[in-house]
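Translate sequence into structure tokens.
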Amino acid sequence: MAQDIVNAKKGLTPQYWLPALYTLPKFGADEHPDALTRWLIASRASVVVMSLISGLLGGLLVLVGAPSQFSLGLTLLTALGLVLAHAGSNLVNDYWDARHGIDSPDSPRVRYSAQAFVTGEFTKRQLLLGTGIILACAAAIGLYLAYVAGAGVLVFMGLGAAILLFYAGDPFPLKYRGLGEIAVLLVWGPLMVGGAYYIQTQTLPWWTLAASLPYALGVTTVLFGKHLDKVDFDASNKTHTLVVLLGDRNARRVTRALIALMYLLPLVLVAMGIFLPTILLVAFALPLAAWVWRLLGAPKPATPPSWAIRWPLYFVSAAFIHNRRFGMLYLLGIILHLVVMALWPGLQMPKLF
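Result follows.
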């Protein structure tokens, strides 16, 4: 199977592109996805939408706080750089997990999707070269943004690169020391969103960091879900994720608390006069939040339910579906805030405190 994929016949297979962007597809021996599809799967393109949302969120916050400085071009370029950095980071982390022996042919990671450094979708040389190109493109975008916005951008780049590249990498793999979940909260919140805002304004007001947290908390719940799905496997391999350190029961409680904060913080932002109540559109994601909440309160089933796409993915799948809905609604709520403020420029923002 692996050698068949490495030597896949030439030609494009566009019918596989959307599934590779939206899910984690696996293919049979008689299916031959093209190189683009295989790279999308190897880099886990289906989850880099989280970086896209963070980048766009930073741009929208510029329209809220400093509309005269907003640049659509810089917003899109920043979002592209974040997407490439995330994709490259996924490949780097898979490399280290394979090298450390965590990802093996019988590991959960390989069971739910192709792990290119283990399952042979590409040769090792192809993978390293491709990963280098992706990261080089992300770095080039970052350096251009630093040239446009000033050296302060390099601080965001350096911190983000250190966390993303060493999430599972030597010499200090964060994931193995219970720091991965905290790192994700910082990266997808203050670093990505705050950095996107800084690029266009050269400022970093406190409220932008506060506004980054509801979505960043959602991304963190996705990682908690992933680590809950393989807590026993990680513990047996001495991969000390925060979920392993907390234990299954306490980790579920923390995940529930993070979900609750996702909905509490928008209320606080409205009460403080940062946004109009339009951002409370996130309430339409509450049915999914309740679904995830119920799953976290019950034992994981022994067999996959009908909605599970890639077993043993369970908690992470539900958390990702919820976070994707929440993120889209959060962006829409801010867009509606901007529309209302444009239509009624003299409107006074309500403040409860």
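Note: Residues 43-343 form a domain with the Farnesyl Diphosphate Synthase fold (CATH 1.10.600).
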